[in-house]
């Protein structure tokens, strides 16, 4: 699904064009802090700890909110298949409740839980695309997601 820009301009995501607007539009303070620190960590990781980005630069970073994305996943037999992941955040889905799909995330081998076979369920909260400038001045686009994790009980 493309960026969520309705023709009438009244869709809340049409006002989110940069990182500052995303933070301002996030009501939950914990989510806001997670988005901010996660983006800082992502930039550090992608620049191999060479780049430090000022708050003003981060706040002005362009981004685009998406409510769905087609992803390649591993099927039960190990084959690659396409699936649509939907994430409306706090917005309604087709006039009903919000829709934030669940996904399975394979954990590191040291955290293999019994019945879950090393996988945990995560719920998508936010999908967006942004671009970062590399050392040579070129721009690279990245798809990012914020997801809430689950905590297995009794070792899964």
What would you say this structure looks like, in words?
The protein has helices spanning 19-24, 29-46, 55-59; strands spanning 63-66, 68-74, 80-86, 102-106, 119-133, 139-149. With 156 residues, it is α+β, with helices and mostly antiparallel strands. The chain has one domain (12-149). The strands form 2 sheets. Strands 1, 4, 5 and 6 form a 4-stranded antiparallel sheet that branches. Strands 2-3 form a two-stranded antiparallel sheet. The protein is globular. The protein starts with 18 loop residues before the first helix and ends in a 7-residue tail after the last strand.
Overall average residue pLDDT: 78
Structure class? alpha+beta
- As a percent range, the share of strand residues is 25-35%
Query: Could you spell the SSE succession in H and E letters?
Result: HHHEEEEEE
| DSSP helical segment count | 3
- pLDDT under 50 segments (min length 5)? 1-12
Distance N to C terminus: 34 Å
| Oligomeric form | single chain
Largest sheet geometry: 4 strands, antiparallel
**Count of structural domains:** 1
**Care to count the β-strands?**
6
Q: Characterize the overall form.
A: globular
Helix content: 10-25%
Output the radius of gyration.
17 Å
């Amino acid at each position: 699904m493309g960026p969520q820009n309705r023709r009438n301009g009244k869709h809340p995501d049409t006002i989110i064009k940069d990182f500052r607007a995303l933070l301002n539009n996030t009501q939950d303070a914990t989510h806001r802090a997670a988005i901010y620190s996660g983006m800082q960590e992502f930039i550090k990781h992608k620049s191999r700890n060479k780049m430090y980005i000022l708050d003003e630069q981060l706040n002005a970073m362009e981004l685009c909110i998406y409510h769905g994305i087609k992803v390649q996943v591993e099927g039960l037999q190990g084959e690659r298949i396409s699936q649509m992941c939907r994430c409306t955040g706090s917005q309604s889905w087709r006039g009903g409740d919000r829709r934030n799909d669940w996904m399975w995330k394979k954990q590191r081998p040291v955290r293999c839980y019994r019945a879950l076979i090393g996988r945990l369920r995560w719920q998508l909260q936010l999908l967006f695309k942004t671009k970062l400038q590399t050392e040579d001045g070129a721009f690279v686009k990245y798809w990012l997601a914020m997801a809430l994790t689950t905590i297995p009980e009794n070792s899964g």
